[in-house]
Amino acid sequence: MSTTMTPDALLGGPSLPQERRIVTELPGPKSAEILERKAAAVAAGVTASMPLVAVAAGGGVVVDADGNSFTDLGSGIAVTSVGNAHPAVARAIADQAAALTHTCFMISPYESYIAVAEALNRLTPGDHDKRSALFNSGAEAVENAVKIARKYTGKQAVVAFDHGYHGRTNLTMALTAKNRPYKSGFGPFAPEIYRAPASYPYRDGLTGADAAKRAIDLIEKQVGSENLAAVIIEPIQGEGGFIVPADGFLEAVTAWCRENDVVFIADEVQTGFARTGAMFASEHFGIVPDLITTAKGIAGGMPLAGVTGRAEIMDAAHAGGLGGTYGGNPVACAAALAAIDAYENDDLAARADRIGRLLTERLAAIQQADPRLGDIRGRGAMIAAEFVDPTTGEPDASLVAQLAAACAQQGVLVLTCGTYGNVIRFLPPLAIGDELLDDALDVIASELTKI
Ligand SMILES: *Cc1c(COP(=O)(O)O)cnc(C)c1O
């Protein structure tokens, strides 16, 4: 299938007009009224960053309660990659909900869970014998990957990396690097978690081999492989700033893990499912993880997560040791099967590549004119623009916050990230059309000149 086709042809036609259209002040009056109720009813720790209340979404747009149509460059944090309310996903959800909404897989199993496990075993890197288990969220998948690695190795320590993000539960807060907003005041954190330096080519200037040596030296000195159950890393770090490690870094770390009986866990919760132009980001680096965690893009917006890996590691957990009431819910599994069908049969990895090329080209032109755009990086439709003070190279978080807010006012929803908060991240639905994307980049370029 040609990758230049419009999303209508690609995905069977989102029914919402694919346009950026702001018809009220923002937030509009209806959204503002609902947001007032939010302030009175929802815990203050649960923030909402965009000036709207969503009522519909599809293709590359989100429509609010006031009839404003926003261009979506975030996909609800890399979740609705196939497009929001994708027609086949919506149909699968409706059909499954009408037949069976829940039994608890551990009590009365159903086929769709098994079919999702089969798909994960087939699609994840490596042709070894695999098993999968399903959960509700990315954090829960990470927790279970650590449980499984500890049980398999009989060891306890876990190494995570600088700039890493793995979730908000107690164990995953400990694995996550950044204090604010994720951890501050929420300790004590889980024990036996150690942090190693990552590879951040724009800031450390190290080759992959040197960055890996730095990390491995620290692990050997401070932890010791005889105590280490697992190393967990995002092949491309997400919340930390879409950091692509230097060539050779991940290869060296995986090789060291293999030689030292340490389970290598790739957290592909954000990078998985065609997002980076490959089904999984590990493929870009030629690595075959022992365990892979997935969530976000897996089910077109339904909450579902997975751990997939080597059969002998996955099967180390005793009967009844893994599971949960809702894990692998049948409605979520039906959605996942429809979404996975779209990833494979509509060649969304190729679409992600094309989106990445469009974004990178436009950002390079912006960088030519504005040296505050220090670095453009990423793979496929996971692209970052890191903003700095051009004379000192210091991160410029204030510029990025202003730019994201200004773009939202113009009807472009763009997310920020980064350890230093100075990164604009592009995660558009793979269902977005070239014209809408191009128009969003016009808005970003124009708003940037006003800051
Ligand atoms: C979002 C994310 C998580 C946590 O997923 P939740 O579903 O929010 O619990 C874990 N790891 C990575 C890499 C993520 O991006």
Helix-strand string: HHEEEHHHEHEHEHHEHEEEHHHEEHEEEH
Q: Tell how many strands the DSSP assignment holds.
A: 15
By oligomeric state, this entry counts as single chain
CATH architecture of the largest domain, please? 3-Layer(aba) Sandwich
Specify the number of helices: 15
Total domain units: 2
The amount of beta strand, in percent, is 15-25%
- Overall form: globular
Structure notes:
This protein is α/β, with parallel strands linked by helices. It folds into 2 domains: 7-82 and 347-449, Aspartate Aminotransferase, domain 1; 89-345, 3-Layer(aba) Sandwich (Aspartate Aminotransferase, domain 2), CATH 3.40.640.10. Helix content is 38%, strand content 16%. It contains 15 helices and 15 strands. The strands form 3 sheets. It has a 7-stranded mixed sheet with strand order 4-10-9-8-7-5-6, with helices on both faces. A 4-stranded mixed sheet has the order 1-2-3-13. Strands 11-12-15-14 form a 4-stranded antiparallel sheet, covered by helices on one side. β1 and β2 (61-64) form a beta hairpin. α5 (111-123) packs parallel to α12 (330-345). The longest helix has 22 residues, at 348-369. The radius of gyration is 21 Å and the shape is globular. Pyridoxal-5'-phosphate binds at residues 137-139, 142, 165-167, 234, 238, 267, 269-270, 295.
